[in-house]
């Protein structure tokens, strides 16, 4: 399989750390001009990526990003909506305030809706485009004491993605979802450390708790590059008949086929 994205412009939101960084690097390695966004530019950001500072929680951010991309490159071929986070405390429904719910839905759902709305008209005009929305296995297998509002927002993202795929498929635009399980990223490690602090246990014990809750037959976290490899395939011409599908990359954690 020879994947080439030469001449294509790709946006990766949240593209400076973890899964997003791995995706940006992979797409760049196979020829794409990659634009990445994050709230803060990292000191080690490579010059091969065009960086846009953006807080996607702010409604105006999507239009600012779209304007800069289209003015600089004149097109957008690939959107990877990777930015997202579990921002709320554990403990179930009684621990979650309106602000917790609002924040999780802003970053994990509404930010994606806004980015797609701002850039889809360009894709429709050029009659070509691929959108990958990064979700989570927790949207299908929520852990009530850890991910209630986050899982709910991502579940909405899954349904939205299927609806969008149905709408824009006739316009030669494909929309798919990639749902990672437990991935070894800075955010995941912070999440585990927070669990350790709140439960007054060690980081190793907190890690075991998470892995036991999720139940991963392969017995380990995924590396970010393992998610990036699938994304690179899905945005390429090798996957040109694939749309409206949700791919689990979770080491076998999802207990259904």
Write a structural description.
- There is one protein chain.
- The chain is α/β, with parallel strands linked by helices and 257 residues long.
- It has two domains: 9-181 and 224-247, 3-Layer(aba) Sandwich (Rossmann fold); 184-221.
- Helix content is 46%, strand content 14%.
- It contains seven helices and seven strands; from the N terminus they run βαββαβαβαβαααβ.
- It has a seven-stranded parallel β-sheet with strand order 3-2-1-4-5-6-7, with helices on both faces.
- α3 (98-126) runs parallel beside α4.
- The longest helix has 29 residues, at 98-126.
- The model has no long low-confidence stretch (mean pLDDT 93).
- Pfam families: adh_short_C2.
- InterPro entries: NAD(P)-bd_dom_sf, SDR, SDR_fam.
- This is SDR family oxidoreductase.
- Belongs to the short-chain dehydrogenases/reductases (SDR) family.
- It comes from Adhaeribacter swui.
Primary descriptors:
257 residues; SDR_fam; SDR; SDR family oxidoreductase; 2 domains; NAD(P)-bd_dom_sf; Rossmann fold; alpha/beta; 7-stranded parallel beta sheet; 14% strand
Task: Please give a quick description of this structure.
With 257 residues, the chain is of the alpha/beta class.
| Tally of DSSP β-strands | 7
Assign the CATH superfamily of the largest domain.
NAD(P)-binding Rossmann-like Domain
Mean pLDDT: 93
Work out the strand percent. Answer: 5-15%
List the uncertain runs: none
- Helical stretch count? 7
Task: Report the biggest beta sheet as strand number plus sense, adding barrel if it closes.
Answer: 7 strands, parallel
Strand and helix order: EHEEHEHEHEHHHE
- The CATH class of the largest domain: Alpha Beta
Structural class of the secondary elements?
A: alpha/beta
- Helical proportion? 40-55%
Strand order across the largest sheet: 3-2-1-4-5-6-7
Shape: globular
Radius of gyration: 18 Å
Distance between the termini: 26 Å
User: In total, how many domains does the architecture comprise?
Assistant: 2
Instruction: Quickly give the CATH architecture of the largest domain.
Output: 3-Layer(aba) Sandwich
Which fold name corresponds to the CATH topology of the largest domain?
Answer: Rossmann fold
Protein name: SDR family oxidoreductase
InterPro entries: NAD(P)-bd_dom_sf, SDR, SDR_fam
Family: Belongs to the short-chain dehydrogenases/reductases (SDR) family.
């Amino acid at each position: 399989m020879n994947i080439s994205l030469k001449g294509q412009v790709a946006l990766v939101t949240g593209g400076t750390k973890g899964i997003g960084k791995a995706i940006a690097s992979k797409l760049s390695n196979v020829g794409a001009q990659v634009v990445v966004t994050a709230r803060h530019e990292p000191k080690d950001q490579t010059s091969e990526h065009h960086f846009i500072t953006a807080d996607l929680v702010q409604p105006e951010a999507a239009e600012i990003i779209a304007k800069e991309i289209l003015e600089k490159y004149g097109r957008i071929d690939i959107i990877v909506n990777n930015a997202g986070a579990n921002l709320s405390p554990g403990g179930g429904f009684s621990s979650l305030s309106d602000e917790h719910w609002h924040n999780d839905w802003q970053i994990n759902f509404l930010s994606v809706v806004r980015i797609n709305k701002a850039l889809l008209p360009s894709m429709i005009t050029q009659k070509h485009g691929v959108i990958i929305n990064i979700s989570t296995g927790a949207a299908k297998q929520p852990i009530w004491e850890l991910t209630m509002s986050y899982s709910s927002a991502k579940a909405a993202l899954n349904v939205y993605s299927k609806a969008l795929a149905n709408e824009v498929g006739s316009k030669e635009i494909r929309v798919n979802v990639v749902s990672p399980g437990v991935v070894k990223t800075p955010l995941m490690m912070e999440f585990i450390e927070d669990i350790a602090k709140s439960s007054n246990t060690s980081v190793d014990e907190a890690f075991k708790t998470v892995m036991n809750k999720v139940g991963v037959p392969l017995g380990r976290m995924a590396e970010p590059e393992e998610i990036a490899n699938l994304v690179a395939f899905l945005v390429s011409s090798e996957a040109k008949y694939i749309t409206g599908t949700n791919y689990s990359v979770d080491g076998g954690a999802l207990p259904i086929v």
